[in-house]
Amino acid sequence: MEELPADFAEVNIDSLVLLIADMLERLMSHNDLIPLLPESLTRFHSRSAPGITVLDYLRRIVRFTNVETSCLLIALYYIDQICARMPLFTLSSLTCHRFIIASITVSSKGLCDTFCTNSLYAKVGGISVTELNVLEREFLEKIDWRLMCTRDVLQEYYVNLVRTHSTGQFFVVGAHSSGGSISSDSDVEMDTTQSRPTTPDAHLRNRTSTILIDSPLVTEVSRRPTIEQNMAFSSFAALQQSQDPTVENEPDPNRRTM
Questions:
Q1: Mean pLDDT for the stretch of residues 233-246
Q2: Measured in Å, how far apart are the chain's first and last C-alpha atoms?
């Protein structure tokens, strides 16, 4: 068995990728058995399942974008937020890859000091930049612009990933179900004031989490995007580097199917 640090911010990103991919693969296997109804279709749906596993897709994103651990982990929080607001939405082999690249794009811009252009995110994700721009806007609307969550919430997702891993090869010594030892100098400073759990939206109050097994969904007071946020994300979508970074001779296995 492999021991992992108690604090999610200190975990090796390769181990975190294994944990997240394991969770998503199991979720996809379950949801792929659910019949796809016309009313369930979203912008995240592909015509066919991409020819790359979620594990390899996440590794590709980590390799070429230097995504931070918090941005990977908060994708699980976003899944719960979207599933609560869109009861017909399921994370399946047709939606997972597009959801992941949209989540990484949004969280990197919202949480990190440095991030890539949409052109690079699209190239790494195997979709066109125009399509990524549409997915980004759709993603922000579906999460109601709630980009932040507390460190305690992310810690709970992290501990739950370890606890429910299919092979049981990881363990966290001395971890609690929530909280845990949190470092004050993590890579990404999460919002701990506006995002404290308060009175949930009425329609979300009794919903359970898709990812956090047997845990209530933690939600926040509705907060619409500010003018600055709208302007910022519009600018990010249009941003182009004078010399766009090139992904070094890496095949694009998703471009034809996504």
A1: 43
A2: 36
Dig out the tokens for 256 from the structure: 């034809």
Residue 136 has pLDDT above 90, yes or no: yes
20: Cα separation from own chain's centroid: 10
Q: How far is residue 12's CA from residue 17's CA, in Å, rounded to a whole number?
A: 9
Confidence of residue 168 (pLDDT cuts 50, 70, 90): confident
Ranges of each domain in the chain: 1-258
The single residue listed with the structure tokens 């939600």 is: 219
Between vectors from CA 28 to CA 115 and to CA 217, what angle results, nearest 5°?
Answer: 70
Angstrom distance (rounded) from CA 9 to CA 24: 20
| Tokens matching residue 94 | 């047709």
Pick from 2, 16, 6: which is nearest to 180 by CA?
Answer: 6
Reported pTM: 0.71
Burial call 185-208: b when 16+ CB within 10 Å, e when fewer: ebebebbeeebeeeebeeebeebe
Architecture in CATH of 1-258: Orthogonal Bundle (1.10)
Residue 240 has pLDDT above 50, yes or no: no
Query: Which residues share a beta bridge with 170?
Result: 2
Q: What is the pLDDT of residue 210?
A: 55
